[in-house]
Amino acid sequence: MEGRSLGRYDRYILSQLVVLFGFFSLVLISVYWINEAVDLFDSLVADGQNLRVFLEFTALTLPQIMMMVLPVAGLVATLYIFNRLIGESELVVLQTAGLSAARLLRPVLIFGLLLGLLVGVLGNFLAPAARGQFIDRSADVQADLTGRFLREGQFIHPAPGLSVYVREITEQGEFRDLFLQDRVDPATETTYTAPRALLLEASSGPQLVMFDGLAQTYDVTTGRLTTVLFDAFIYDLGALIADQNAARTELRALPTGVLIGADAELAATLGLSLAQMRFVGHDRIARGLFVIFPPLIAAACLMLGGFSRFGVWPQILLAVVLIIPLQMVWNAAEASAIRNVDLQLLAYAQPLLAASLAGGLTLLAMARKRKRRDRTRPGAEVA
To answer: What residue segments make up the domains of the chain, in order of their start?
Structure first.
């Protein structure tokens, strides 16, 4: 009978945690996703890409967003559930029935393990793969000059420092009344105008060929303006694309195994710091371990106090105050490890401290429960 009752308690708490975790996750992911989508809209749709590309890019950002918000959602869900259990005296009834603090925290531990597994899969597999796909698709979009130039009657910015306006594009693909302003070099500003232009593909990359036009170059240093008339002028767009796609290697896109097993030669080839590569690799594993414990810390803090008509806000504040320094520990570990490759295992300092804190709070909650029971039932044997 007891085992069956305890099983019902586990299922009850876990179901409540999962439902609220899903709700808070959905809210937080929506907020972050909308913010990310606005930035992507400016750089994609406003740059000539269609809605399908926009949706693809926003979907590729979801794993990284989930990694950020899921631990927060798990913490908030735990605080909410145990606050309600205390407020409705359910926790008091369960403790009176003989359940220890450790026993009451068991479903929270199970929830934390599931959360850690989810974050671990996201951080070590899905997020790097999505980031790599994001970088590859970004390169494709940068190279898609047709999609970026073929927009009539609008000023577009296909590359930093470059502004283009085309009044009309004929069915044959010829540009009519082209305006192009080149401010890639901060020292000069060159404006090209031409009644006709063509976008051609050459061996060195795409070329914009302008006919019967005018080029005005302003030297920012001297203040001198030079005007040149031309019958035909070729503007090299291939070099512009190469510059934008040159540095495509990004830590977030590399597999965890590559980061942890990196050596000096690989780091030099990729143009990355060896110490940072190894720390990021270990940190992905450590992050999945760390998220197990904030829900336990929060629940244990709420169990430290007894029932009060003033609520459990002091215990909630205590939980937050205890978790914030753990992030400071991670910041200090990162600052040290990225400067010294021998300190890469500092990535695990945060989850180790969080586990110790959760265990200590659980023991303290158990001790306080025994003291309260001794005071209310003097002379009775402790079960």
So the answer is: 2-142+257-376, 150-245
